[in-house]
Amino acid sequence: MLENCQDAKERWGGVSQIIDRWLQERQEMLVQYCALSETKGQTSDERGAKLRRMCEIMVDYVSAGHFEIYDQLVREGREFGNEQALKEAAERFKEVDATTEKILDFNDKYQETDDLTTLDTDLSELGETLEARFSGEDRMIAVLHDANKDVVQAS
Predict the structure, then answer these.
(1) Within 10 A of 140 (CB to CB), how many other CB atoms are there?
(2) Distance CA 100, CA 45 (A)
(3) Residue 23 and residue 69 in contact, taking contact as beta carbons nearer than 8 Å
(4) For residue range 79-121, what is the model confidence (pLDDT) as tens digits?
(5) Within 13 Å and on the Cβ side, how many CA atoms surround 57?
(6) How confident is the model at residue 7 (pLDDT cuts 50, 70, 90)?
(7) Are 147 and 85 in contact (CB under 8 A)?
(8) Looking at residue 105, what is its pLDDT?
């Protein structure tokens, strides 16, 4: 039993660090988003550079969520047999997943053009999409990780 507790601690103890790093990347993306939103008086070249930087961080953030964070959270929920949390997280994942295409479409649009005439409108829509995504992600973390972290720490 002690060995199982130690195994769980080793397996899940690092999840908090992964989530913390991912949320730090979210914060960096939001800083870039806000900086880009405040560039109305700047040249297209200046705005374009900020846009490319924000898109780079945004795509990295979305990718990390889909290919690292969500899998870790679901594995943790399964390991602890938290079926109710897994059901709720599946619903939140549907919400999060629905935002992915919009985010990638934004990125693709601005990777393929230098025309920034609709950028302000697109940024506003992107902001709403990101807000919905963050809400779903935060709920997934709450139901799949936060519910079990006391068990992991006590192990």
Answers:
(1) 25
(2) 27
(3) no
(4) 888 888 889 999 999 999 999 999 999 999 999 888 999 999 9
(5) 19
(6) very low
(7) yes
(8) 97
Residue type, 56: E
- The 10s digit of each residue's pLDDT in 47-70 is 999 999 999 999 999 999 999 999
Which pLDDT score is estimated for 36? Answer: 93
Instruction: Tell whether the torsion through CA atoms of 49, 35, 130 and 63 is positive or negative.
Output: positive
**Structural contact between residues 131 and 104, judged by C-beta atoms closer than 8 angstroms:** no
Q: Express each pLDDT in 19-47 by its tens digit.
A: 889 999 999 999 999 999 888 778 888 89
Residues contacting residue 32 through CB under 8 Å, at least 6 positions apart: 50, 53, 54, 57, 58
- Where does residue 77 rank: exposed (0-12), middle (13-18), buried (19+ CB within 10 A)? buried
Asked if residues 129 and 96 have their Cβ atoms less than 8 Å apart, the reply is no
Q: How far is CA 99 from the centre of its chain?
A: 11
The answer to whether 122 touches 106, Cβ cutoff 8 Å, is: yes
What 37-40 contacts at long range (C-beta under 8 Å, 24+ apart), as own/partner pairs, is 37/120, 37/123, 37/127, 40/120
**Under DSSP, is residue 81 helix (H, G, I), strand (E, B) or coil?**
coil
Q: Which residue shows structure tokens 């999409």?
A: 129
